[in-house]
Amino acid sequence: MARARSEERRGDIVRAAVEVIAERGYRGASLGAVAERVGLTQQGLLHYFPTKEALLVAVLEERDRWDTGGGSRASAGTWRLDLLASLVEYNAMRPGIVQTFSALLGESVTDGHPAREFFTERYAQVRSEMAAVLRAEFGERLPSGLTPEQVAPLLTAVMDGLQYQWLLAPESVDMPAAFRSFLTLLRGPEAA
Fold first, then answer.
1. Whole-angstrom distance, CA of residue 127 vs CA of residue 150
2. DSSP 3-state helix, strand, coil percentages of the chain (rounded to 5)?
3. pLDDT (tens digit, 9 = 90+) per residue, 143-171?
4. 116-138 vs 81-92: helix axis angle to the nearest 10?
């Protein structure tokens, strides 16, 4: 019972951290602000997350769990291009999570940022997963003649780049429609 309550409290803290980071960015977010949002003292919050960095990692891991339906990172065999389009549509319904992820990603490129290692490892894994998705869909060569490994970073860049454009101008950028257009480009002239 106590363990379940502790896990529930940790979840409340992570959700509050997502909100605070979305509002202020990682560097502007304080443990005190997160603690206040969940009705704890900063010392009480430290019982659950001993450092701001530990809380940040929990936020990033939670975001990945939401994307994969509760598991850790999805295995390459579970993704298909049409499911990636569904993920883009899902992200369009949760701007706060996308904003938090995007803010953390942007901040993580600076030296010494506590999320830098997380994102570096995550992108290596995502590129590998995207290459597997592309290989399952097209084989060893896409209609363009490029290999799945050549296109995987481009697919990843389109997904994340669309998120930034959509966050900045949601009324002008239809993220799901733009991603479907990109998939049409990947599939070549026969798919159009």
1. 10
2. 75, 0, 25
3. 999 999 999 999 999 999 999 999 999 99
4. 140
